[in-house]
Amino acid sequence: MSLETPAGGFGVYVHWPFCAAKCPYCDFNSHVRHQAVDQDRFVAAFERELAHFGEMTGNRAVDSIFFGGGTPSLMKPQTVDRILNAIGKQWTVTQGTEITLEANPTSVEADRFKGYRSAGVNRVSLGVQSLHDTELKKLGRLHDVATALKAIEIARETFPRLSFDLIYARPHQTLADWKQELERAIDLAADHLSLYQLTIEEGTPFFDLYNAGKLQMPDSDLAADFYELTQEVAAAGGLSAYEVSNHAKPGAECRHNLVYWRYGDYVGVGPGAHGRVSVGANKLATSCERHPESWLEAVEANGHALVENVGLGPEEQGDEYLLMGLRLREGIEVSRYESLSLRKLDPRRLADLRSHGMIEEIEADRLRVTPEGMAVLDAVVADLAA
User: Fold this and answer.
1) Is the pTM of this model over 0.90?
2) Assigned CATH for 10-259
C-alpha cells in the first residue's frame, strides 16, 4: 500500500516539558518539578494523544521523530520506547526514519544513551552550549566541559548520528574567543552543529538583567560580525550552513528540521506542542495546552489537549512557507508558493531585492536569500510577503 507523503515530508514532534533547572536565557515551555514526575501516567497520555492525531491524519510514512523539550533525556528509556511504539501503531516507521532525542550532557543522562539506542533513537542532539566552564555557569547550565566532552564521546560511540548546540555572541565574548571555541567544536563534531546567537527573550531572567543594565550584549554591528565569522569558520571546517543557525556535512542535515523549513506536515504532541497537519485540502495549525499537569488532565478527559485546531487560509500558508523556506540555503520553489498562496510574488519587489544582492534565482523555479540577505532575513521575508 502506498502512503500519502505531504510536500515537505511528515514528522512527529514529542514535547517533554520537564527540566532539572531553568536556564536564565530560555523561554521554551519547560518546567522544573521538585517531586518525581509520574512517567507512566504521562506516557499513557502521550499514547492517547498520538492515537487522536492518528485518527485525524490516517496512516503516513514518517520521515522523522523528534523528542524535544524541556529535557527529554530525563525520560526513562522505557518511556521513550513506549512512545515510539505508540507512534509506530499510528503511522509507518521504517529503518530510514530519523529519530532524534535532545539530551543534556550530564553523566547520569549519558549512561542512559544505550537504553535510548535500544529503543530506536538513532540521532542525539546535545545541549553543550559552551566549551568554557565559566561561560556554562553564566548560562545556568548544570554540566561542565569535562562532562560535555564525555557525553560527546559516549554519543559518538552509541548513535549513528550526533549534533550539539553552542550559543555565541555572549556577554563580553570576543570574536577571537569564539573563533577558537568554534574550531574546537568542529574538531569534536561528527557531522552537524547548531550555532545560535544569544537572544534576550521577554519573560526570562536575562531579559530582566538586560533591562536593568546588568547584562551587556554585543551591539548590532558586532553581532553581525559574530554571524559572519560563524559562517566562515564552520564552512572552512566542512560544516556549511544549510539553514540560518544549522551547519552540516552534505547529507547530514537534520531531517526533522527540514520538515519544518520545507513546510511539510508535522504532528506535535505533549504540553505546548505545535503542529501543521494537512487533512484533505485543509492545512491545520494545532497547539496543545502548555501547562504539563493541565495537559495531562485534558488528555485523560478528552483524548487530547488541543487548544488550537484551525484551518490556515492561502495567504497564511504562503507567508509561512516564505518564513520557513527562505531560512534554507536551498531556498523555496516559486511554483509551490504560488499554489499555496494563490498569488504571485511581486516582480517589482523581486527586482529590487535582486538589485540589492538580497536574493537570487538558482534554478528556473527556485529562489533563495543570499548570504548578505540572511543577515537581514526578517526584512527580506516581510518585503516579499507584502
Assistant:
1) yes
2) 3.20.20.70
